[in-house]
Each structure stands twice: as structure tokens, then as C-alpha cells.
Amino acid sequence: MEHLQSHFECVLKPGDVVSPTATTSLPSIAPITEIRWRRRWEQIHDVDGTLWDVHDARATGHGFDLLFGFVANSRLTGAAAQKRARPIATEPLVAYWDANRVNGHAIFDLPANRTALQSLRRKLGFNFFKDRRALWQTRSEDLKNLPINEFAKRYNVDSMNAYVWRFLLLGRMARPLNWWNTPETLAILRSPGTSREIGGKLGISGRHAFHLRRVALTPPGEPIPDDSYRPFPKRWKTPAALGVLRSGLSNREVAQKLAISLSHAWRLRRLLAQESGQKL
């Protein structure tokens, strides 16, 4: 970093050995065995005003450098200083975390140990889970009133994620059983219009409205039409195809003779049996 000027400090400890020329300018100390040098950059203040000695700086790719060091006058030297250096809570780092409170990937997209970053975030009052819950709580009104798909499109979130958070924050949102079986709702279900239009009036999907209208329009005492019924395809109603489908061959042999898949042969024989009222 250009704005940080590196310099070196010579640290002498009792027991170090120095040359005779050097002892004339140093206080009287016992012989020593080694002279160690410590590399330290200029001192800075963190966001809380604490003075730090900066020992390292790493580029983050987010427009600022991540600084490492110790609180001033910690007296760590050499390899110990390099191993134990901690990230410093500078203003750019805190601003980056504040702008990415609920972005789990961006929070730790920094050149530092995850444990060290978590410890620093805890001291600064950041909490990913609490911040995420607070964000969803600000959207609770729309989460309650809007359909899930519309909510997900408005806030650019996953619809399943929105569904889970709606349950966590608002509890069960399903309507009571047989909610539609009231005179007012039955009148709407039996009124003319498409299923989409009826669903819009009742606040439900068109598919849901279709099923409810089918029940509402069925006279009392009569069975509800089976929605799973499908007619037998006309293109397979040829004497040759019907003869193969009605034969005693296995589904695999039928599929081979008609040049279709095994599942397709099974479905055709099932539809044919439903239409004729027989069991294969």
C-alpha cells in the first residue's frame, strides 16, 4: 500500500550479544544471542477509535485492502507477529459488511480466515441470521397479501424461500376446510366466466378455481367427474394396434411390436382397459 510507509524496529532483549562498538552506545545489558527485527507499518485507528499497528495488507477485489495487525504496543515480534495478526475493523470493511448484511457469499469473500472474520463481525454487532430475519420482517405485509409467485418476482427471490419465510413469520396461512362451501362463494363459483376470472375474484389460482367449480356445479347426490380420466387416443384405434394391445403379451413385448417405450405401452393398455371397463 502506497499510503503506508514501512519501517523496521530493532528489538533487543536481555541475553542478546552485540559487538563491542555497539555496546558503547547502548545501556549496560547482559550478553545476548540474537538480534530480531520487526516489520511494522504506520499506525491507524479502527472504527471504534482504537490505535492499531498495521503489519499486513491484502487486496480484496472490492475496492479496499484488508489490514491486519495488533493493538498498539502489544510487543509481538517476528514470526509470532505474522501468525497472530488480526483483521482490523477499518471503515471500508465495515461499510462493505453493512452493504452485504444478507449476502452470505459476499460476507466471507475476503482474504482472511473465516473464524477471524466471524469473531470480528461478532464484536461489531453483525449477525447474518438476525439481519436476514429483520429483512424479511420488513416485507411481511407484502408476504401476507401477495401471492407467492408475485412476491418472488417483485423482490427477486426464490418462491420456495418466500413460502418458507411466510410460514416462519406469519404461521399457517391455509384457509379452513370447506371455506368455499358458503352461499356467497358458491354463487361466485357458479357464475359465468373463465376459471381464471373466478380465481381472481376469490384470490386463488385458475386451476384451484376449476376444481372448485366442478364440485360446485355437480348436482347433489351425483358423483364428481373423475379428473384423472383421459380418452383413448384415436390414432391407436386401428385393428392391428388394438389386436396387439389386447393380446396376452407382456408390456415389453407390446412396446417392441408397436415400436414405443415400455411406459407408453403400459399407459395405452391402461387407457384401453378404462374405456372398455376391463382389467388387463
Structure keywords:
280 residues, 4 domains, 15 helices, disordered N terminus, two-stranded antiparallel ribbon, alpha+beta, 4-stranded antiparallel sheet
Summarize the structure.
This protein has 280 residues and is α+β, with helices and mostly antiparallel strands.
Describe the structure.
The relative contact order is 0.05. The longest helix is centred in the C-terminal third of the chain and has 15 residues, at 262-276. The chain contains 15 helices and 6 strands. Residues 1-38 have low confidence and may be disordered. By secondary structure, the chain is an alpha+beta fold. The chain has helices at 20-23, 78-84, 91-99, 104-107, 114-124, 128-138, 140-145, 148-155, 159-170, 183-189, 195-202, 206-216, 239-245, 251-258, 262-276; strands spanning 7-11, 36-40, 43-45, 51-59, 65-71, 86-87.
Helix and strand element order: EHEEEEHEHHHHHHHHHHHHH
Major beta sheet, strand line-up: 3-4-5-6
User: Spans of 5+ residues with little confidence (pLDDT < 50)?
Assistant: 1-38
Number of DSSP E strands = 6
Approximately what portion of the residues adopt beta-strand conformation?
A: 5-15%
SSE-based structural type: alpha+beta
Write down the overall mean pLDDT: 75
Radius of gyration: 38 Å
Helix content: 40-55%
Distance between the termini: 81 Å
Main β-sheet description: 4 strands, antiparallel
Number of domains as seen in the coordinates: 4
Tally of separate helices? 15
Shape: elongated
